[in-house]
Amino acid sequence: MLVVPSIRYSQLPRFQCSSLQAVRQLRQLQKAAVASLPTTLHRFSDPDVVDLRSDTLTHPTMQMRQAILNAPVGDDCYKEDPSVNLLQDTVAKLFGKEAALLFPTGVMANLVAMMVLCDSRTSEVLIGEFSHQMIYENGGLATLANVNPRILRNLADGTFDLEEVASKIRGNYAYEPTTKAICVENTQNYIGGRVIRPSFMKKLHSITSQHGVKIYVDGARIMNAAVALGIPPGDLLEYADVAAIGVAKGLAAPLGALLVGSTEFITNAYKIRKLLGGGMRQAGIIAAPALVALDTMPALLQRDHKHAKMLATKLAELVPLGLNIDMDAVETNMVMFTVEGLSVKEMIRLMAEPTDKDGGQYIIKLFDNGNTVRAVMHYHISAEDINKTVAKAGAVLRNLPHNNTPELQQQHDIM
Ligand SMILES: Cc1ncc(COP(=O)(O)O)c(C=O)c1O
């Protein structure tokens, strides 16, 4: 049984002032008090379920839960929540920007960023066809921000063709929308967690800066990109004007995202967040676990990336049975694959069917990514879960009619 040491309030100094220095001191004491708590925590859900649908499924760790309990709070609409102020200050510094602003969700952060960057009518943004903003955000860009999205092809590595970018930038011509910003997603989720490198950002900037076009980064998983490249996270944003930083994906905070940018941008974003009902009161209970997430979780992302490679390598053994996978595309915590002669939906359904045959008595949950099946690694996923997934995939594939020949059965009786 997990024993959770609790911090007694009487042991903590009373929180009397809202200065960043005071809250930093308090946090040091809290950090020492929770250091003995496990960073990771096994999921509370059914152990017979291996849930690989997303890293958004991560539960907050014990340290995060303890931080919520002990968070110094205030009214953030008066900018008096010390935990929020500390988080914003920490994230702005970490990403090399002047200021930061906390949001409940990445979707709201993306929307507000677009509303601020495109603050006049007839504005346009260049955006990847496979970006989260285009696919999964209810068209908020057009319907709420009144911005014209101009679609760019996403290349296989998640980047854009720079000639296409240059040809699609539009100036101040009376008949056409004016390009105000370009959106980059790092890591690129839909394509499989691809990492957008600083070298690409530099080239992009050399084009956009000639036209006053701002670079926006949806960094829901930007820490995965930094960990994969082994570079400080700020290096990824050197050529970006504004970014959204996610803390509720692989970093496992329960919710939250922060916009980072210039002080002027953040001042404007603050007003638009309020307009949308995003002004929060004692938001320290969101900020406190986010601070723990930034302290403790990046080190664990490396393990998720290793697990993704492990899963991909083992799935590649099923290629003779009709599984398609691009090993080079596995850069962070996601694995994409397809199965010949089987739709994505059907593969997902079969993997989620409980069975006590070769695959054992458990189910595997996977994500329907349109043309591919997606499996996402996160800190709840163990090497054993990966073995179960591969065993189950092998059983599903061997049972397909076209694999049900004695030769193939014998040849690939590998699980
Ligand atoms: C790339 C990307 N951007 C933005 C979001 C939205 O984040 P949130 O769920 O916090 O609104 C997600 C969510 O999965 C995402 O994958």
Would you write up a description of this structure?
- This protein has 415 residues and is α/β, with parallel strands linked by helices.
- It is 38% helix and 14% strand.
- It folds into two domains: 62-296, Aspartate Aminotransferase, domain 2, CATH 3.40.640; 299-411, Aspartate Aminotransferase, domain 1.
- It has a seven-stranded mixed β-sheet with strand order 2-8-7-6-5-3-4, sandwiched between helices. A four-stranded antiparallel β-sheet has the order 9-10-13-12. Strands 1-11 form a two-stranded parallel ribbon.
- The longest helix has 19 residues, at 298-316.
- The chain is globular and about 70 Å long.
- Mean pLDDT is 91; it is low at 1-17.
- Pyridoxal-5'-phosphate binds next to helix 4.
Could you give the count of β-strands? 13
Could you spell the SSE succession in H and E letters?
HEHHEHEHHEHEHEHEEHHHEEHEEEHH
Helix content: 25-40%
Instruction: Count structural domains.
Output: 2
Broad CATH class of the largest domain: Alpha Beta
CATH fold topology of the largest domain = Aspartate Aminotransferase, domain 2
Strand content: 5-15%
Q: Could you give the distance between the termini?
A: 33 Å
